[in-house]
Structure formats: C-alpha cells, structure tokens
C-alpha cells in the first residue's frame, strides 16, 4: 500500500507482530488446562482496548474531556440486547443499528454542550452517562427491564458459525481490536487526525487555520460513540446478560485512565495500558480483600513511575527528508536567522 | 478421590458481609463433613470465586469456576449478580444453586440445572400482602430501592394487592440505596399519609429510614421484606427507633427446633463465637446439604446431580426447613414468617 | 406549602454537606486543576475518624453533648489534613510537571486505595454513629418545624464559606494561592514558595472534607467505606457548576444540587431524582458555560 | 575578571534541557550599581541564563554567587526574598487576576507597607496606563500594557538586582524609550540591573557594560561604549 | 479596487471602546502597516477582520463581500491568513505539522477517505507535505521540519507562524508584530521576507512597533490611538505628522 511505502510506519508493523503473537498465545492457552480463564481475561482486555481506542478519538486525539464514555458502550449493548431478545434479530444484524443509534445519540447530546471548555464538558459527560444509566434502571420505555437487565442474549453467529467458547470469541474480539487499531491508525495519520490534534492543542489557532472546530468536535464525538456502540454489540453476547450495574461511572473513569496512561493518544500505549489496568484488575482478584487496595495502589505507582504515560507520544513521521533544501529559501540562511541558532544535542 | 464443589460469593463489594458469612458457613460445613469422613469416603474440596457483588465481576468469576470443571456451584447472593452468571454455568453444564436470589425470572428461563434455596419474590409478595391485611392496614406505601431484588418484590407486592383488593396502594416510588439522607422521601411519604410503609430494600436503608423517620415525625410503621433480616439493622437504627419494626422472612435457624439446625448452630458458635447474622448465608448451607445428598446418591456428575435434585430429593431437613425442588428448580414449601423487633433489639418470631 | 418548606430544608441540609465537600474540592481543584477523586474518600475518612474518636475515648456520656461535635470535627479535620498533606506529597507532587490528567488517574487510584483500606480496617459493613448523641429541639420557621441540626449544618457551611472566601480574596496568602493556580512559574518569580502553597491547600481542603464527614456521621447516622465516592463526585459537579475556583460558587452549587435533588425526589420521583438533578445542572451549563457565578476568564487573542 | 566587588558572579555555568545543552559554561559578573546588558541572537541562551539566576532551572554545573553567597541550588522563592527579581520573557502576568492583584503579588515578599505605597506611586508615574486599568483582568490588557504591568510588578518587590528579559518587546517606540529610561532611573535609585535586549542600540546606550552570547557561549564582553563601536557587533546586532 | 476595506467599525469590551469608528482600505498587492500606541486597538482590529470578534457595528469587506460575523475558519478559506501577537503555535507538534495546519483548508479528505486510505487521499497528503516543505524553506526552517515547534526560539516561532499562514494560500496575510523579539539584523532579514511575500502577489497588513521595518516596507500606514484612527498616509507623511509624533513616535532627538 502506498501509505506504508511512503512513510516509516513503525507502529503499523509493531501492530502486525503484536496481533500475530496474540493469536499464538490464544492457541497455547486454549490447549492448556485452565487456559480458559486466561482467555476470558484476555477477552475482557480486548473489549476494554477497543473501547479505549474509541475514547481515544475523543479524549486523546481531540482533547475533549469525556468522562462518560461508558454510556455509549452501554447504549450500544442495550440496543443490541433489545433487538436480539425482543425482536429476535441475529446479533450481527444489530451491529449497524447499535452503532448508528449510539452515534446519533452522542451527536444530539453533544450538540448543545460542545462549546463548553475542559472540565465543564467533563461534568456534562458525567451527567449524561449517569442520566442514561438511571434511565436503564428505571426501565425506560419498558425496554430495558430495569435493574435486572436483559438476559438470554444469543451468541454471535457468522456464516453459520456460533462464537461460543472463549477461544472463538477471542478471535472475534481481538480481530475487531485489530481492525479498529488499523483504521484509527490511518485516521490519525491524515488531515482528519491532524485537525483533531490542532483542536486539542489550540482552538484559536486551529480555527485561525481553517479548521471548523464545532464540526470536528461533533464528528469526533459521534465517531467515538459509533465505535463504542459496536463494542457494545460485541459485548452483549459475550456477557449474555446486561444490566445497568455493568455500566457504572467507575468504568468510565477506568477508560479515561487507560487513555491517559497510554500517553498522548498513542495506540500501542492504549493496548498496553488496557493490559495493565484491566488485566491487573482481573488478576489481582486472587488477593481477595486486598485486591482492590492493591489495584488502587498500583494505579498511583504506575502513574508516578511513568508520569508522561507508558508510551512517549510519538510524533507522526513524514517522508519529507528528501525535500530539505530542495525549495528556494525566501529569507533563510544568508540572513542567519534560523541556521545555527539551535542548541546542539548532547548525549 | 476428592469431590470438588464451587462457591461463588460476594466476598467484596456491597454485599460483602453476606458473602463472607456464606464462605464461613460453607467452610465450616465442609470441615464437619470431612471430619465425619466426607461423601462416601471422599473428601470435599471447595473452590471459591469472588463475584464482587457485581454482575460484571460475577461473569468473570463464573467463567473461572466453569474452567475448573466443578460439577456444581453454590451461589450467589443478589438476583442481578446471579443472573449474570446463569448463562455461563448453563453453557458449561454446571449445576448452580442460587442462595440469596429471589427474582422470579431466574427460574422462568428454562435452565435445566439451575436451582435455588431461596424462595421466590411472588411467594414473598403473596405473604406480604397477606400479612398487611392481617395486621389491619388499609392503605400502604410501597418503597423500593431500584435494585433488581427490591424492585421485583415491590412489583410483586403491588400486583398481589391489586389482585386481592383488600389493601390500597397510595404510594409507589424508589429511593437511591447507599445515600445517607432519606428525609426527602420520608417527607413525601408523610404527605401520602399511609397506614403503613412497606419497604422492600436492604437492611442498611431500613436502619436509616427507621432512624430518620423518627426525626421527621412520621408515625406510620415500616414493614420490610426478607432483605432486612440482618442484625446490623439494630445498630444502624438504634434500639429505640427499631422497636416495633416488622419484616417477613424465612425463619432464622435459631428459631427452628430441628436436630440439624441445632447441631449446625452449636458448631458455628463454637468456631466463630456468634450466630450467623443473615438468613441468606444460611440458605447457602441448605444448598450445600442438598448437593451433598445428591452426590452421595449419584456421584459427582452434573447431569446426575441435576436429575436427582429435580426428582429424588424430597423433604430433606435443611438449616431453614425442609428442602425439595420443583421442576423449575424452585424450592417447594412455604417458608415465610413474620418477625417483629422488640425493645432490646431482638428479632422475635410472630406466631402464625 | 409546609411540605414544600420541609423539602426545601431537607435539600438545604444535604446541600450543606455537598457544599462543604465542594469547598474543599474547589480549593484543590482551583489550584492544580486536579479532579481529586480521593477528596470524597478523605471525607469518608473524616467520618470514620470521628466515629473512632467518639468510641475509643468513650466521649459519649463523659463529655457534654454540646462539646462533642466540636472535638470530633476538629480532631477529624486535623487527622484528615495530615492525610491530605501526605497524599499530595506521595501521589500528586511527582506528577506536577506531567499532563494534568495524569494526576487524575493517580487520584482515582488513591480513591480506590482509601476506600479499600477503610474496608480492611473497619470492615466493609456500614457503621453508625449512636443515634442519641445530640438531641436538639425543632425550631419553627414559617410555621414549619425545622430540625435544628439542619440549621447548624447550614450555618456551619455558610460560615466556613465566608471564612474561606475572605481568606482567599483578602489575604496575601490567598492571593498567592490564586497566583499559583494560574502560573506556577510566574508565582515563583514573585517569591512565592509554590510547594508550600500547594501543601497548604492540601491541608485546608481535606480538613474541610474531614469536618464535613463528621457532620455527616453526626447528623445522618450511617457511614460506609464507599460513600465518599458518590459524595465526592456530586461535590465535584457542584464545584464546577458554581464556576471553577469560585468559592461562593462551590457553595451555591452544592446547595443548589441538594435542593434540586430534594424537589425532584419530593415532587417527581425518587428513582429519577439524580437524573433530574444532573439534567438541571447540564441545562445550567448550557446557558452559563462557565458556571453559575462564572469563572474569571481572560481569553484575549 | 573575577573580582571581589562583584554583586553577582557566575562561573562556568552549564544548563541542560533534557539532552539539549543550552549553556555551555558561561562566566560573567555584575558589580553593584551597574547596568549590564546581555545581547545575543534568538535562541542564544539569554533567557536560560536569567532563569538559572532566578532558580527556575537547576544548572547542571557551575556556580552563581550573589553578594558572595552561592545561590545556584537555592529555591526560587528564597532567591526572590534575597532581592533578585525578574520580569520574565513573555510577561507572564496572572491573566485572571486584576492589574491591582498582580501588583500586590509583586510585593509578596515586601512586608513594608509604607515602602509598598511609595513604590506603587512610582510605578504609576512610570506607567500611568496601569493606574487607569487597576480593575481590568491582566489577561485582557493589550500586549504593551501587559509588558508595563510585568515590569511594574517586578518593581513592587523592591529589587536589589533586577533582571529584565526583553522589556521592550511589543512596546511602542515612545514607551520603549520610557522603559529604558525607567531602567536607568531604577538603576539610579540604587538597583543593579541585568538587561536582556534585542534592541541592542538602545540597551547599550543605557548600560555600563555588555556581554554577547552566541549559542550558549559568551563570545564578547566589554564597556557598553566600546561594544557599540565594535564593527563585529555592529554587523551582527545593530543591523549593520 | 481595494482588497479589504473596513467601514466605521466599532468594537466595545464592556465600557471600553477598543475600536472606535475605524475605516480604512488595503489595496491589492500592497503592504499596509497599522501602528499606534499600546492598547490602541490594533490587535482588536485584526481580530475583527479574521472573525475572532464580531464588530458591534460597521462592516468588513473582503474582495467585495461582507465578511464580518463569519467564523474564523470561513474567513481563512476566503483567503485571509494571520499570525498572532502572542504566538499560537501547536507547541507539541512538529514544524511540518504546524505548516500542514495551514494546508488544512485547501484539502478535502474527510473521515471516510482518511480511515480507508483512499488513493486520492494519499496523493493529496503527499502534495500537501511538499507544499508545506516549500513554505518552511521559504522562511528558512525546512532543515528542522521534524523538530517540536515549542523548542524553537522566539524569533523562529514567529517565522514558523508566517509559514503556516502562507500555507493557506492567502490573498491577504495579516501579521501581528512579526518582528517582536528579533534583533535589528534579524528584523532586516524579516523585511526581505515580507518583500518576498509581496512579490508572490500576496497583500500584507501588519502591526509593528519597529519603525525601521514599518517605514522601509509599507506603502501606507494607518495610525490608531484610543481605538480611533488619527492618521493615514505614506510613511513620509506619517513620520512628520505631529499628532502621530506626540501620541506614538516621540521626538527622536537622540537617535
Ligand atoms: N524548555 C526547553 N526545552 C528544550 N529546549 C529549550 C527549552 N527552552 C529553551 N530551549 C532551547 O535552549 C536554547 C536557548 O534558549 P533561550 O530561550 O534561553 O534563548 P534566548 O537567548 O532567550 O532567545 P530569544 O531571544 O529568542 O528569547 C534554544 O536553542 C532553545 O531552543
Ligand atoms: N477581551 C478583552 N476584554 C477586555 N478588554 C480588552 C479585550 N481585548 C482587548 N481589550 C482592551 O482593548 C484595548 C485594545 O487592545 P488591543 O489588544 O487591540 O491593543 P493593541 O493596539 O494591539 O496594543 P499592543 O500594541 O499593546 O498590542 C486595550 O486597552 C485592551 O486592554
Ligand atoms: Mg529569551
Ligand atoms: Mg496588539
């Protein structure tokens, strides 16, 4: 592909290698006894990774403080659950509906509040997700079955194959993560992705350079929600019973933490941070009463060890080296303006 | 060869005290059983997973248990939590005996290997309406806390009331559990002016309601469901405010006079120094007894156990009364009794 | 009408607690822009400290009931202030130069840590303050009996707010606190010891939270290890709604939240009251994007 | 050159930003009562030098003596207390505080009320515009007004050594002259001044001595008068 | 015909009239300077032109169309680019990406094309990078295209802002104190740069306090004081205008 030849997409190849290793790991786990638990942990991580990637578009790339992302996930899962359990649709058909309804919801609720700055937006997103959760608890429109939630959601069926075991779902979930990572990676390395970053760093300068801020912010919200809605579709048949208790505010904060810990919206960082936080939360349960205490402690410690996030924010690489010195200089070196004034790097 | 049994309980999370007590009871019973030689000479081994009292964690815990290939699992407390694990155990073909999960739909979904030792909400709703009528209340305010269990019971009670037409519902609403101040809802209740208030939620809220009801000057008595059957209720409300509080619940082991319960209580007291605080942890003991019977008869195979529990287990003496299951997996027999709190904070069983 | 006034007083009472927690929140938040999730847990710790002191020194019966609350409040405030001070040192200071959201993650971790530490120390079960520590008569206002403890809570909140407002806006140190909040580097050039100022804020804020925790236990009775999270969250929301860094705003936000909840719970439905309260707050922000009392903004281009 | 009467004496100062070394061993001194100007192109390290004197950056090696005491490892707050006050590059006014509050903060370490009042009067005569705008938020002032505020604020601390980092930046020609005149006046009141300026002619006019920094090294120094007439300087910094 | 014209523009902040009934025009292909004392309202006039503020009354006309009240991003699309007095670069991004920001309004790839790497999107990217490098070279910063903008020295940050503005293909470029923080020699180089910009057929409107630069390069000057226009004319006329001397220049006795 043109894109890969043109630039040094190290991240892209890292991704390929990573997913290959994961596939091997899954096979090893499947054939070992007790590996099922680990597969489930991996699947949990996969779900959260996909979610964090979708939040990353909003929070990591655009700098919109969305601390209610779990709401979009919940909405997607509920749409799927209702369509499946009430109307009997196969799960896979519900996917576009879950995604679109969630995106539409995000768009509509974001519209009046998108102009809010930083923490004001954060509070609003918290509010929206709590309102939605309470609506689910109160059995809104008689569809969500209240606090009990919706049970008996079918498994996903594709081309006659039913994704039942953890092993099968592993491929489903991580396949989705891989596609997501790939598409979002391309997105980041484009005009669109840059525009989101411009907004994050300086709205005034962004709009002064022709970026339609409101439009991009809304699209970022809707896109993040669209994806979270799809993850909801995958999650519902994975967990098979969904209830409002699964979508509490703390989960939003956990997602938020994953994106921050990842460091500067870095995709590889997000995968690692999901492993670290979600994986640890699962693994630490073996310490019983002490597990959450340790989990909290671990979050503090990790942050202190890596204040800038697990991964350094990697600047996009452009294949422009060959263009240096090729164009005429309008002012340039003869004036001594720019040359030689940079302090030198010492190792 | 050892027999392995799974236990899924909320060792952490909001229902941790139930979960911890459950764990103690099952561990104690296994200890006693193994001391007597186990099941047909085989020692019993327990595999415990914490469901964190939350549906999400429960699903993970259930998968863990399923992957250990135990034939049967006891647990858990809380209908929503149980519900999150049902599909997983069902898929794995494992027998599950719910303990403190009373929501109706748990046994209405046609699972072949799901049982429970807790009675169902419709049964409790029926008894609740019966009691309200017997106590002579004409108007009642129903209050729940939006949790799966409490909402279910509230709906059931309301349905029974509407059906029989002997009592009038003048108020139906929820409070938010875990808060500290319920004066808003109490003020609202006061203005509805009911003869009695039926609260279907859990003991901590009952405690606060009782305490704050007094402060706000609301006289109508509160009557509760089985989730308020917990000794901590008195601590929270204070003896004064708790006096006269009534609730319906399966009987406490201390109120039962069978040799099985007596032996159990003595052993519990000897080990832990107190009596068990909640009926639901005791219900897990019932589940254990039923399981042991089944394994004794048919061996540690899930299908055989399920079959035995459905068809062959009849009126085995448990900790909270006789145990048998119907074809849906529900416990058979009427268990509910009315309790009242006396001036010293004791739960006194009311004569039927 | 009576009912309305009673509901209003219900709302103002719980709103006072929100306001107190929000005041501490806004102090810390204003200076570091740190969403200190652990603040709610500091509040809980205050409540547990109070209970421990009450029980272990057997205050009840030996000391006049009028003095007990003050002993508890002051001791708990001191204890929590120490924890707050340490918390900043250990969990936030190393992150001072990182992205400000990094400290939010650390704060969330600290919050989980505190809540679970409390569970391990005191058991996960709920605990209660004895029901009969303070028995005060009701006071009729507009012909409605209002519990005097509510007036005390409301009064305490207003008093502390006024003190804090005065301190921040009319003292040299207060101005220094605000300067640090805006630009730490420039503050250093004024001769302000930034570390000291931040430590100071992490003493005042948590002390207020701890005091609120004791009030909560004394007047509502029951406490549990997880209660701080939702309280902290609501207080945070209240502080933002009031206008970031705005002390009367935090107070107003807290009271408003309490009242909206009470009215929604009293006249619409208990199960929807939180949703209505959040909805109302969102609507406020749509029309006042920098909070009720507004935040000072100077975005000159 | 090292001299016991130096008020501030810097020896072999090396400063790094991560891997980037901005100062490669700078030595200079300023005597009490002098105005010394630091010249240099963009990115030469002038701001870095002032920042290390003020204690905002820890040098990786070298010493800074102020009044005979080493201060290179001392907290910036303490340095300000000892009388080294800086008006930083880019103004750094407290944007959401009023002009008045900004001035008060300038006097944070100054506990003498009467003196504070006197200086305030003086600042107002230097920059009457500030007096008109006492209640305005500093962030909404025009660029030049902010610069006036930054300088006024630094005077409020009653400096012994005043560090001015490009004070004429963004000011109208008339005001530039006023500001440099003010620097002279400040100096005449007994304050030692280190002045970083792009406007080399104007700076050298009021200074006693000057140093020229290039890419983190001092390449020239001398009496202001001599520097002004140095052909190399004229070519490089005086627009030729 | 004039490229840009302001007619009776008024802007108030609370009680303060920052721009008071200002009118002037900017001819195509010219360099016009806007000068005046600090706080006279120059930057505010710029903000009114670029849509960051909307005027209370009056009109701003660009290429025959009224543009006041439009959003900044629309105005950039129509051909007005700017730099900021308080430098507003994307500090953590590379020089190249900063300049690519300028290209944004001339590119078309949307969400879908970007996500799926459509071939035309790739071609567009490639040519945008080339164009951006061209602008970087124009200001002499191409060698360090991959460095972080925030690490540039002040003067170079100003140049980068100019490159970014040029990348938008402007008809009119608006520079707010481009020589701020530059020494005399650097300013002389900047003067050349502005001349080169003019030679590219781009009209320049600038605010500057450096009189050497202004007098050297501007064809016309507009002088503001307390928000109002007090003079307008060629540099020679302005230099000797007593009002301007009193309000702004001062008597250059000693220079
Ligand atoms: N925070 C930083 N991180 C990395 N490099 C930096 C940082 N600050 C400055 N530098 C580099 O250090 C060198 C000296 O910068 P400094 O700001 O001291 O220059 P200056 O002489 O004040 O320039 P100017 O006249 O533009 O203000 C420059 O090369 C600059 O790029
Ligand atoms: N957002 C704002 N709110 C209040 N006052 C403002 C605002 N923006 C500008 N002002 C005031 O309007 C006046 C004009 O400001 P402006 O920035 O246009 O001046 P300027 O001519 O660019 O000055 P300078 O040369 O110092 O940059 C100033 O007195 C300033 O304080
Ligand atoms: Mg500098
Ligand atoms: Mg300006």
UniProtKB/TrEMBL annotation, chain A:
GO terms for molecular function: branched-chain amino acid transmembrane transporter activity. This is Branched-chain amino acid transport system permease protein. Keywords: Cell membrane, Membrane, Transmembrane, Transmembrane helix. CDD domains: TM_PBP1_LivM_like (cd06581). It comes from the Bacteria. It is found in: Cell membrane. It is a multi-pass membrane protein. The chain crosses the membrane at residues 12-29, 41-59, 71-89, 95-114, 170-187, 218-241, 253-277, 283-305. The keyword Flavoprotein does not apply. The keyword RNA-binding does not apply. It comes from Pseudochelatococcus contaminans. GO terms for cellular component: plasma membrane.
Automatic annotation (TrEMBL), chain C:
PANTHER family: BRANCHED-CHAIN AMINO ACID TRANSPORT SYSTEM PERMEASE PROTEIN LIVH, HIGH-AFFINITY BRANCHED-CHAIN AMINO ACID TRANSPORT SYSTEM PERMEASE PROTEIN LIVH. InterPro entries: ABC_transp_permease, BCAA_transport_permease. It comes from the Bacteria. GO terms for molecular function: L-isoleucine transmembrane transporter activity; L-leucine transmembrane transporter activity; L-phenylalanine transmembrane transporter activity; L-valine transmembrane transporter activity. Pfam families: BPD_transp_2 (PF02653). Its main location: membrane. One of its GO terms (cellular component) is plasma membrane. It is a multi-pass membrane protein. Belongs to the binding-protein-dependent transport system permease family. LivHM subfamily. Keywords: Amino-acid transport, Cell inner membrane, Cell membrane, Membrane, Transmembrane, Transmembrane helix, Transport. The chain crosses the membrane at residues 12-35, 42-61, 67-87, 99-122, 151-168, 197-221, 275-294. It is found in: Cell membrane. This is Branched-chain amino acid transport system permease protein. The keyword Flavoprotein does not apply. CDD domains: TM_PBP1_LivH_like.
From TrEMBL, chain D:
InterPro entries: AAA+_ATPase, ABC_branched_ATPase_LivF/BraG, ABC_transporter-like_ATP-bd, ABC_transporter-like_CS, BCAA_Transport_ATP-bd_LivF, P-loop_NTPase. CDD domains: ABC_TM1139_LivF_branched. GO terms for molecular function: ATP binding; ATP hydrolysis activity; branched-chain amino acid transmembrane transporter activity. SMART domains: AAA. One of its GO terms (biological process) is L-amino acid transport. SUPFAM superfamilies: P-loop containing nucleoside triphosphate hydrolases. Keywords: Amino-acid transport, ATP-binding, Nucleotide-binding, Transport. Residues 8-240 form the ABC transporter domain. Belongs to the ABC transporter superfamily. PANTHER family: HIGH-AFFINITY BRANCHED-CHAIN AMINO ACID TRANSPORT ATP-BINDING PROTEIN LIVF (PTHR43820:SF4). This is Branched-chain amino acid transport system ATP-binding protein. The lineage of its organism: Bacteria, Pseudomonadati, Pseudomonadota, Alphaproteobacteria, Hyphomicrobiales.
UniProtKB/TrEMBL annotation, chain E:
It comes from the Bacteria. The keyword Thylakoid does not apply. Residues 4-251 form the ABC transporter domain. This is Branched-chain amino acid transport system ATP-binding protein. GO terms for molecular function: ATP binding; ATP hydrolysis activity; L-isoleucine transmembrane transporter activity; L-phenylalanine transmembrane transporter activity; L-valine transmembrane transporter activity. SUPFAM superfamilies: P-loop containing nucleoside triphosphate hydrolases. Belongs to the ABC transporter superfamily. Pfam families: ABC_tran, BCA_ABC_TP_C. The keyword Cell membrane does not apply. One of its GO terms (biological process) is L-alanine transport. GO terms for cellular component: plasma membrane. Keywords: ATP-binding, Nucleotide-binding, Transport.
